[in-house]
């Protein structure tokens, strides 16, 4: 378990007007559909309306000024934003060094577009993907709230994150994987001492395996508990800080369950309330594979939710999510930002990944290649203005596919 070398002067930070939870600024849970509230000190999964809970904070510009002062002396991990995370016992947290991932500037990809292209490389997280951010928060909170064990169904990256943080937290872990998940994922989950189940089909079929014996485990699936989105929102905090508190013009993001988009949308709202950013917001572009594109289909039809995609066909298992419980939140974020939803043909991805490795020096996974395919399509459609700043996300290491 890793702790800070020395305590920050948290007393330098102004408190919220009411006593903040755990000495921080989180206030309560709010239903994302109805606005009904719930306390933070009780276990929470879906709201009574069957919708995700979101953590609400009490924030002011005075708190933002104080936060800027203390950030200067903090390590570059997601825990630098501790006041904006709903953890009660910070000093005894489980911390594997998650967050603080670099932005890599591309110089040779699409020079004719005359844009400033960056890739946020989430493969640098401890288990090789952005899932570490959300599962760090979810497992830490589950332990604080008394979970006997934790579980989820996963196509790979989330399973790796869950079992690593559960092992560090001393919690039993169980994961259910589609049987065509790379064998290395099975082996790594076993190394962390997890119980591993598998099933033919997609996440939907795998999740059914977790019903038996579920009283021994809390299910930490995407947006079915409130805290994974809190970890993922730190990607938005980092982008803002890495660019000197000025947000990029576009964020191009490979979409599975959508927690990252929901989280970054939430992060920008919180930073605005703290007075750390102005009114500018990036356009969110969500990217899916053409063989499994429920959000793209819903966006094109102007729908507020996305019906399940029948018979999903994609080898990019990070994008193989036929139904997302937070679909309405993702679609809302895309539309409010003036963004887009794009489906790409995955036959392009290997060529893009190979080109980037040979010409930009960065090895990328298929999800990252999908975002660059979308960047190519947007450029071809004339979506970009010369000089605009674009951030494409690589959400997982190519090694996690081996």
Individual helix count: 12
Question: Quick one: how many beta strands?
Answer: 13
Strand content: 15-25%
**Span between N and C termini?**
29 Å
Q: If you compute it from the alpha carbons, what radius of gyration comes out, rounded to the nearest whole angstrom?
A: 20 Å
The whole-number mean of residue pLDDT values reads 93
Structural class: alpha/beta
Describe the fold and architecture.
With 402 residues, the protein is of the alpha/beta class. It contains twelve helices and 13 strands. The protein has helices at residues 61-71, 131-144, 157-169, 183-191, 203-208, 228-232, 234-242, 259-273, 294-301, 327-336, 349-359, 366-380; strands at 26-31, 37-38, 53-57, 103-106, 116-121, 150-153, 173-178, 195-199, 218-219, 250-254, 283-289, 340-344, 389-394. The strands form three sheets. The chain has a six-stranded mixed β-sheet with strand order 4-5-13-10-11-12, with helices on both faces. A four-stranded parallel β-sheet has the order 8-7-6-9. β1 and β2 (37-38) form a beta hairpin. α7 (234-242) crosses α8. It starts with 25 loop residues before the first strand and ends in an 8-residue tail after the last strand. Residues 1-9 and 16-23 have low confidence and may be disordered.
Task: Note the topology.
Blueprint: E1 26-31, E2 37-38, E3 53-57, H1 61-71, E4 103-106, E5 116-121, H2 131-144, E6 150-153, H3 157-169, E7 173-178, H4 183-191, E8 195-199, H5 203-208, E9 218-219, H6 228-232, H7 234-242, E10 250-254, H8 259-273, E11 283-289, H9 294-301, H10 327-336, E12 340-344, H11 349-359, H12 366-380, E13 389-394
